């Protein structure tokens, strides 16, 4: 199983690079938290970076065994998480097992990822939100390219309709909160604020 950290977002609402940000109660930044969690399950971890943070992330993980930082690859660059999937399958073109985790979830528990890793083709769902960037997929470069060539760039459609992934339900929890601004305080009693796509 290959871990894939989605760390190339624009972080417009957040105000600074979310992947490189460290909340006050964290020992490392959000990208490192995601990598560390995936390394508990996956032998290899890929980090999908943007042009803005690729140098910083490459330096950060330079000495981390089996961690590779990559950027979007032509002809499918700048299409969000789907570009990350294409880039990953460019590194490993044949069918492979991927466990996806976005840096947006610094409080996510390892138990969630372990549960998803035990179910083929699935994604996490809480009562209020579908979490398409927390998923387990079998992918190949051919399959991802075929979908992108149709001109559809919505990750939700790719996972739900094209890959026909099943939902794995979890209760609402602090771990599923996507913090969109630095000023947001995450407490255990905070409600999930994401909306369904």
Automatic annotation (TrEMBL):
Keyword annotations: Cytoplasm, GTP-binding, Magnesium, Metal-binding, Molybdenum cofactor biosynthesis, Nucleotide-binding, Transferase
Where does the MobA-like NTP transferase domain lie? 3-150
Entry annotated with the keyword Cytoplasm = yes
Q: Which GO terms describe its biological process?
A: Mo-molybdopterin cofactor biosynthetic process
Against InterPro entries, the record matches this protein to: MobA-like_NTP_Trfase, Molybde_CF_guanTrfase, Nucleotide-diphossugar_trans
Q: Which GO terms describe its molecular function?
A: GTP binding; metal ion binding; nucleotidyltransferase activity
Q: What is this protein called?
A: MobA-like NTP transferase domain-containing protein
